[in-house]
Write a structure and sequence with these properties.
alpha+beta, Jelly Rolls, 3 domains, 9-stranded mixed beta sheet, 3-stranded antiparallel beta sheet, 12 helices, binds 2-acetamido-2-deoxy-beta-D-glucopyranose
Length: about 450
C-alpha cells in the first residue's frame, strides 16, 4: 500500500471527529483570466429564490411542494458558514493526490475556449496550474467521515437509496467544467468562495443534447444556446442551487478557492432498470429455469406447408415475447430492486474494508459488538459511502448485498442511524448480535471510541 494512502485509510477507519477549519479568505491569484460570457443576457426574474434561514431543503415545505423534481430554485442560507463539517481545501488537496480517489483536473483555456481533462491522482505540483481550472473529485463522503456526517444530517429526510455520492469541485477564479446536463436531481452547494451559475430554465431533451455536444473538448460539454432562456446567479457560501434532471447548467468560479459540493439524487429510468435487469438475468442463465426457456415451433407441420419463407408470423413473434416476459416475471423484483438501488455507481476497489487487528478492540467483530452493546463503550458507524435500505418484507440491503429474514424493526435501526449505540437497540430484544457481528466483519459497520 502506498504510504500516502495510510492517513486516508486511518481516517476512514477511526472516524476522527472533525477539526474546526475557518473559512479561508480568497487568496489573490496571479493568473486570473477574464470570463467570456457565451450566453444570452440573463433575465433574473425566471428563477425562484427561497431563503432557508439556516435550515435544509428537505424541511422546507415550499421547496418540496413547488420545486423538488420540478423546477430549479436558488436556496439561500442553507447552512451556517461556521458549521465546520464540510470539506476543506486541505481535504480536497489530500484527496486529489491520493491514488484511491476518483479525481479529474479540468483546465479552461479561455483564449481558445477549450476545456482539457487530466485524470488523477495529481502530483502536488499539479494542484494549481496557471490556467483557470477545477479539481473535481467524486465519492468524497466515502473518504471524509465528517463530510458523510454532514451530508447525512442535512439530507436526513430524503430516502437513503435516492442519494448518490458527494462530488466536490475546487476551482480557481474563472475555472469551471462548462455547460452540461445531468440525469438526476442535484443540489450544488457553495462551500467556499463564490461561483456564478448560469442555467437554462427548460429541461433539455436527449436529442437536443446530442446536437449541442461540443466534441472539441475532452469533457462532455454543450455548446451554449442562443435561443434558450438563461439566468445567472452568484452563489455565496451557504447558498445552493437545486436543479431537477436535465437542466443545462454551467458554473464558473468568480473567486479563487471556490468550492462546490454537488449531491445528486438517483432517479432510475425504465431503460436503466431494463439494462440492469438484463445483466441480472444474464448472471442467472446457468441457474434459472425461466431465463433458459427457448423458442420452438408450437406446430411443426406449419413448415410442410409454409407459403412464405420470408414471413415473420404473429405466432412466432408472440411466442418470443412470451418467453421474455416470463423471464422478467421470474425475477424476484423486490430483491433485484433493493440490490440495484443500494449498489454504488462509483468504481471502488477494496471498499468497504473490514477493520484489521491493527485496530485492536475494534478490529475484531466480536469484541467490537461486545464493547458497544455489553459494555456500553463506543459506537458502530455505517461505513462511509454505502447505502443502507430495507423493506416491509424483512429484506435488508447494504451496498448491493441482500440479507433476507431480518425483521423490519431491526433493519430500521440499522439503516436509519449513521451511528449506532446501545440505546438504539433498547426496544429490540434480543440484540441481533450475529447480524451485527456479520456486518462488522464485512466492513459495513465499523466500531470506534465515542466522539
Ligand atoms: C456573475 O453574475 C452576476 C449576476 O449575478 C454578474 O453581474 C457578474 O458580472 C458575473 N460575473 C462574472 C465574472 O461573470
Amino acid at each position: 500500500m502506498p504510504p500516502k494512502l495510510l492517513p486516508i485509510l486511518l481516517l476512514l477507519i477511526l472516524h476522527t471527529p472533525s477539526h474546526p477549519f475557518p473559512l479561508l479568505p480568497p487568496t489573490p491569484h496571479p493568473h486570473n483570466t477574464l470570463l467570456h460570457a457565451h450566453h444570452p443576457p440573463p433575465s433574473p426574474s425566471i428563477l425562484d429564490t427561497i431563503d432557508l434561514k439556516h435550515s435544509w431543503p428537505s424541511s422546507s415545505p415550499s421547496f418540496i411542494a413547488n420545486h423538488w423534481n420540478k423546477s430549479p430554485v436558488l436556496l439561500k442560507n442553507s447552512f451556517r458558514p461556521d458549521d465546520e463539517l464540510y470539506p476543506t481545501v486541505a481535504d480536497v488537496h489530500a484527496l486529489a493526490t491520493d491514488d484511491d480517489s476518483e479525481t479529474r483536473l479540468i483546465t479552461h483555456d479561455a483564449s481558445k475556449d477549450l476545456y482539457s481533462l487530466e485524470l488523477g491522482p495529481l502530483s502536488p505540483s499539479e494542484l494549481s496550474p496557471p490556467l483557470p481550472h477545477s479539481i473535481v473529485i467524486n465519492d468524497v463522503d466515502r473518504f471524509l467521515p465528517h463530510v458523510a456526517d454532514w451530508m447525512d444530517a442535512n439530507f436526513d429526510r430524503f430516502p437513503n437509496w435516492r442519494r448518490d455520492d458527494g462530488q466536490v469541485s475546487l476551482a480557481s477564479k474563472g475555472g469551471g467544467i462548462g455547460f452540461h446536463v445531468d440525469n438526476y436531481d442535484v443540489f450544488l452547494i457553495q462551500i467556499l468562495g463564490t461561483r456564478n451559475w448560469t442555467i437554462e430554465v427548460e429541461p433539455l431533451s436527449e436529442d437536443e443534447e446530442f446536437t449541442r455536444l461540443d466534441d472539441k473538448h475532452d469533457v462532455r460539454i454543450l455548446k451554449a444556446s442562443s435561443t434558450k432562456r438563461t439566468v445567472t446567479k452568484t452563489l455565496k457560501p451557504g447558498d445552493m442551487l437545486y436543479l431537477p434532471p436535465r437542466i443545462p447548467h454551467c458554473g464558473t468560479a468568480t473567486s479563487d478557492d471556490c468550492m462546490t459540493l454537488s449531491v445528486g439524487f438517483r432517479s432510475p429510468s425504465a431503460s436503466e432498470l431494463l439494462s440492469a435487469m438484463a445483466e441480472d438475468v444474464g448472471e442467472r442463465v446457468r441457474s434459472g429455469a425461466s431465463v433458459n426457456s427457448r423458442y420452438s415451433e408450437s406446430n411443426p407441420d406449419y413448415i410442410l406447408n409454409n407459403p412464405s419463407r420470408g414471413l415473420l408470423t404473429t405466432e412466432a413473434s408472440d411466442a418470443c415475447k412470451k418467453i421474455l416476459l416470463e423471464a422478467i416475471n421470474g425475477v424476484e423484483w423486490d430483491h433485484f430492486y433493493g440490490k440495484h438501488v443500494t449498489t454504488s455507481k462509483r468504481f471502488r476497489l477494496n471498499h468497504p474494508q473490514p477493520a484489521g487487528p491493527e485496530q485492536g478492540l475494534w478490529g475484531d467483530p466480536q469484541s467490537a459488538v461486545s464493547s458497544v452493546f455489553d459494555n456500553n463503550n463506543g459506537m458502530l458507524f455505517q461505513a462511509e459511502g454505502l447505502t443502507f435500505a430495507y423493506n416491509a418484507n424483512s429484506d435488508l440491503f447494504i451496498d448491493g448485498t441482500h440479507f433476507p429474514d431480518i425483521p423490519p424493526p431491526i433493519s430500521r435501526v440499522i439503516c436509519d442511524n449513521r451511528c449506532l449505540t446501545k440505546s438504539h437497540f433498547d426496544s429490540i430484544l434480543p440484540l441481533p448480535r450475529a447480524l451485527l457481528i456479520d456486518l462488522v466483519s464485512r466492513g459495513f459497520l465499523y466500531g470506534c471510541d465515542g466522539l
